[in-house]
Input
Amino acid sequence: MTVQEALKQLTELEKTRHAYEHAIGLIYCDAVTAAPEDSGRGRGETLGTLSGLSYEVFANPQVGGLLAFLREHSGELTPLQNRQVEMLNREYERISKVPQAEYVQYAQLLNEADTVWHRAKRDNDFPSFAPCLKQIVETQRRFAGYFDPARDPYDVSLDEYERGLDQAQLDRFFSALREKLAPLVHRIQAEGAPVDDSFLHQEFPIAQQRALSDYLMELMTIDRSHCSIGETEHPFTTNFNKYDVRITTKYHLDDMTNSLFSVVHEGGHALYELHTGDELMNTCLAGGATMGIHESQSRLFENMIGRSEAFVERIFPKLLELFPEQLKGVTPRQFYRAINKCEPSLIRIEADELTYPLHIMVRYDIEKLLFAGEISIDELPRIWAEKMKEYLGVEVPDDRRGVLQDSHWSGGSLGYFPSYAIGSAYAAQIVDAMSRDLDVPALVREGNLAPIVEWLTQRIYQYGKAKDPDELLRIATGKSFDPTYYTDYLTRKYSAIYNLK
Ligand code: ZN
Output
């Protein structure tokens, strides 16, 4: 086999895998947007078949041989081809180390766990979910041993979602956060100027909220000929390639800001996907670098831009036009303070920007203890309540609003939560660097977001998965990750909102 022939096989392999992923993604997207409610059964079989085929295409010894051959000839490949081979090999190593029977068994376990978790959450019945979760944790620990027996199993899981991230870094990150943010939250509660957000709790007609989404997407320079918006229970972004990106939102009649910030958040994910390099299409390098980097881009738009005073000033005339009665007498300043109200609460996805990372810390602490085998699954509700009290000062009334609230653990995504907090912190560091080149608030106030998107495209978007988070941060900011930018940003922003001395 020549290198040229091997590269041709590699391209074919990538195209075939991408075709399966495209089909699976479309079926999923249809399921949550357009398919009738009770249409799950046939779809489950189709998805199972397609996933099996996609697995077989990749996890076979021929692919192993092809990747080994290309790695031996790395000197004859371009840097991008080498990166492609390296990423595929990494994935291949993981998959091929798990015996196929265990792989299939685990997929079935997760499928079952999803149903069990939904029911347990509805019925506030943690003990019914506990056996499933126990098996998931045991399987993940066992798989981590297959992937990398020398490493701590939780580090193996963290690395899966955020390449290069481990507990040592996260411990430093979270302790820096706790040291700065916990006293800030206490000061706001004790001496902060009160924030009135009562005007946000009214009826906001859905038709006007839809018009607001259109306005926001245009403001963000999202090309609607390549990005559509739909409505789902849980907002998300998905993309089949850079020319077909889908975002979704959920409209709440009594809360207009919920969809407003969903659209800006998912819009941030969409901009990333829409501006990845053309040369990455149909390869494993297409799409966002990691979960943490992806979240950094959505949170950059949602929080650092969307929840800024400049953004509120920009969109306020539109808000008044759409909701004249509801916002009568409200000033942009009042609206800005209301959307940034800090209030320790029970539910992560409803948390404000400042208390949000504290919710992540609760989950991180628990995941560490679980992987280390230091606590049993049955103790989780009690430990959850203790940690919530410790970090947020709130009493957990039931497991539905406690340990059962998130779907991540039932989906096997242990080690995923930290990437949300890390993403916000990356975003603060990136905006700090951007502010050396651009007057960000002035551009936002003018409604001219194109230079911001272009700045991000040059330094982050275009590279897709061709670079690791640390490289991207160095390109964008000139430095490795430093959480000080994040704690400084939050301290500055919230001290001003609450008039803290
Ligand atoms: Zn997101």
Summary: The mean pLDDT is 94. DSSP finds 20 helices and three strands in the chain. Residues 265, 269, 295, 298 surround zinc ion (CB under 6 Å).
